[in-house]
Amino acid sequence: MTALQIIPFSPPRIDQKIIDAVTETLKSGWITTGPKTKVFEKMLTAYGGHQSTLCLNSASAGLELILRWLGVGPGDEVIVPAYTYAATANVVIHCGARPIFVDSGEDLNIDIRSVRKAITTRTKVIMPVDIAGLPCDYDALNALIREAEILKIFSPSSEPQSQLGRILLLSDAAHSLGGWYKGNRVGSLADVTVYSFHAVKNLTTAEGGAVCLNLPLPFNNEDVYMHLNAKSLHGQNKDALAKFQVGNWRYDIIEAGYKCNMTDIQAAMGIVELERYDDDMLPARQQIFTHYTSLFEGKKWAQLPEYESSDRRSSYHVFALRIHNITEMQRDDIIQAIFGSGVSVNVHFVPLPMMSFYKEQGWDMAQFPVAYDNYSREISLPVYYDLNADLVERVARTVINAVEEILDRK
Q: Helix, strand or coil for residue 80?
């Protein structure tokens, strides 16, 4: 008897083009930050339509470097959604500041009304998250931080904050590379946007991330890039590529920085993936989303995710299916039944106020009813490049059978 094929949740795409690019890099003699990383940065800048890009070893590092560059520290507050992965809030804790959680909307993204209520004189940054790849309402967020009453209470405590003169909009776009909002790509929608290239992301470099700089005047984004580049290399004012130039060995340490640069091995993967991203990866993922939608849209219990509208288009990262009128426990039972049939699913995300660390900080999930409701009914379905139509249909049949079995027990 043939064993049932296990359908994984989100395996990385590692094909011969990726293998060849990494092999070529290994043979080149340049494996740390070098020419390929710089090429990848320029490609990302052109792709996103922002001003400058710094590639790093993770999105988390990018978020933290920006907070530290801005001078966020003890006594400061950063507004983040309760419904996100831990990295979004953890980097705020690392800086000694306090994450201020706010509720979500029906689209899973941060609720603008809740953001407004959370702003105080201590607010230095708002960090929206494009959950599942769907861009947030950036027009509303950008308008909010520029309102006269909000500008009046802004209290800068560092030179960059004084230059900016308002709350910084820092987009956690870990899910949304390739997304669009009102004709503009993710990358150009906030003051700073941070991507993730983790193994489960649409575009992966195994681990990795990028900081997309789009700061307004009087900032020079290239100058900020150079500052962040040094900060990512222990405060060294020349990276390895610059030092490699003949006679250019001497360098200085201008601050006690960190070590979070991207390597050329990672960038080699990223270059291959970005070159074929719009023409190959995104259409494949869009097709999977469309197929899932056609299979579930006749089910009254299925709440389908928003991923395309007149104003915004997702990166098709996570197909976040929600089930109407079930409890968290029933959702968990459904997931167990799905796994038992050889299909891997996930949940995006367990809200942070439910996590031990943040509960101990005094947060109570009852403060975020929409976020809890979204989480308690959500099941993330497999989406990856090699998930063919037959496998999509098997996933859907498995989910439908599991849901209806649990609902029949009511």
A: strand
262 and 150 within one domain: yes
- Residues 113 and 247 both lie in one domain: yes
| Pairing of β 180-181 and β 312-313 | antiparallel
Quote the distance between the C-alpha of residue 288 and its chain's center: 20
Cα of 82 vs its chain's centroid, Å: 15
82: nearest Cα among 64, 63, 100, 97:
100
Whole-number pLDDT of residue 249: 78
Annotate 286-345 with DSSP letters as a single string. Answer: HHHHHHHHHHHTT-TTEEPPP-B-SSEE-----EEEEETT--HHHHHHHHHHHHHTTB--
Which residue, 275, 310, 336, sits at the end of a domain?
Answer: 275
Q: DSSP 3-state helix, strand, coil percentages of the chain (rounded to 5)?
A: 45, 15, 40
Rounded to whole angstroms, the Cα distance separating 409 from 356 reads 32
Other CB atoms within 10 Å distance of the CB of residue 68: 18
Whether the CA torsion 294, 296, 302, 307 is positive or negative: it is negative
| Threshold 0.90, pTM exceeds | yes
Q: Among 221, 250, 275, which residue terminates a domain?
A: 275
User: What confidence score (pLDDT) does residue 1 get?
Assistant: 44
Cβ atoms 154, 162 nearer than 8 A: no
97, 124 contact by CB (below 8 A): yes
**H-assigned helices in 177-316:** 221-231, 240-243, 264-275, 282-296
Instruction: Supply the pLDDT for residue 393.
Output: 98
Q: Domains in the chain: how many in total?
A: 2
Please check the confidence at residue 4 and state whether its pLDDT lies above 80: no
Q: Are residues 228 and 354 in the same domain?
A: no
**Judging by beta carbons within 10 Å of its beta carbon (0-12, 13-18, 19+), is residue 83 exposed, middle or buried?**
buried
* Parent domain of 43: 16-275
